[in-house]
């Protein structure tokens, strides 16, 4: 399964509704410094609930709204190759914000999105997204720490956890 389309509306530097197509295989996004490349990755992490505001380089969730449009909502939608659509919207209010998650256009709890994606091995603690700086960190790790990452990616660590749990019972 891969992302076929990303739609960003009023999120960070994307003040205008922007559709970005993705194709199977390897895609490169290039552009000058500050042109919004990392914001595209941030929008994916936001939509799939894979990161906190801090991980999206924002102090609070409402900082993710574009600062120039004056609009009080931001929205990101992701379509996968099997036509699954995940959408997240935040709405700024006088008291804070509301966050809405949709799975195939049905309003749902964020937990449902997290559970759904976990079935495909897409998890916050997984290494689906390797952020700027992560590569250096990985090269500087001990062999044991690096092994843990490989176990996590291969899905072995989940069985280790279950095994430990079973042995403890
Ligand atoms: P680099 O090559 O340096 O990594 P980049 O292409 O990854 O750059 P980003 O970090 O994605 O660039 O984008 C940074 C730009 O996004 C900055 O110009 C910043 O002002 C703008 N930006 C961030 N948040 C917002 C926001 N809430 N509203 C409007 N613009 C924003
Ligand atoms: Mg960047």
UniProtKB/TrEMBL annotation:
Localization: Cytoplasm
Residues the record lists as binding ATP: 32-39
Domain of life from the UniProt record: Archaea
Quaternary structure and interacting proteins, as annotated: Homodimer.
Record remark: domains: Contains large globular domains required for ATP hydrolysis at each terminus and a third globular domain forming a flexible hinge near the middle of the molecule. These domains are separated by coiled-coil structures.
Annotated family: Belongs to the SMC family.
Protein function: Required for chromosome condensation and partitioning.
Name used for this protein in its record: Chromosome partition protein Smc
Lineage: Archaea, Methanobacteriati, Methanobacteriota, Stenosarchaea group, Methanomicrobia
Gene, per the UniProt record: smc
Full-length numbering of the shown residues: 1 to 169 of 1148
